[in-house]
Amino acid sequence: MEMKLAVAGLSSLAHEGRLKAFRLLVRAGSHGMAAGELARQLDVPPNTLSTNLAILSHAGLIESRRAGKSVIYSVRYGQMTALLQFLMEDCCAGSSEICAPLKAIALACDCADN
Q1: Number of H helices, E strands in the chain
Q2: How far is residue 16's CA from residue 20's CA, in Å, rounded to a whole number?
Q3: Res 103: pLDDT
Q4: Is 91 within 8 Å of 98 (Cβ atoms)?
Q5: How far apart are CA 21 and CA 86, in angstroms?
Q6: What is the tens place of the pLDDT at every residue in 82-100?
Q7: In a 3-state reduction of DSSP, which class is residue 34?
Q8: Considering the entire predicted model, what is its pTM?
Q9: pLDDT tens-digit map of 56-75
């Protein structure tokens, strides 16, 4: 991942409302979630949510699709993985015990639905 893309991704997540929306979408899995349901679960006005989703979308972390009258948002898991890999590239510096807890978290993840 290029530095510019990493900065854009991290910047988009550096806001409480966007981070909450992103995490909710991660939990929703590949099926995604309708914008209205996101707004209800996050208890935010639709225009605020729309702005936050646009920023996440421009950073390449989420995508949207139409389903009838609804707009469904979902995480671009490839981009999320690339961002996490970028953050981990220089992690261990030869000391695997530094990253061992992160490996355990990743292995414990039940990602069958994503």
Answers
A1: 6, 3
A2: 6
A3: 74
A4: yes
A5: 22
A6: 999 898 887 777 677 777 7
A7: strand
A8: 0.85
A9: 999 999 999 999 999 999 99
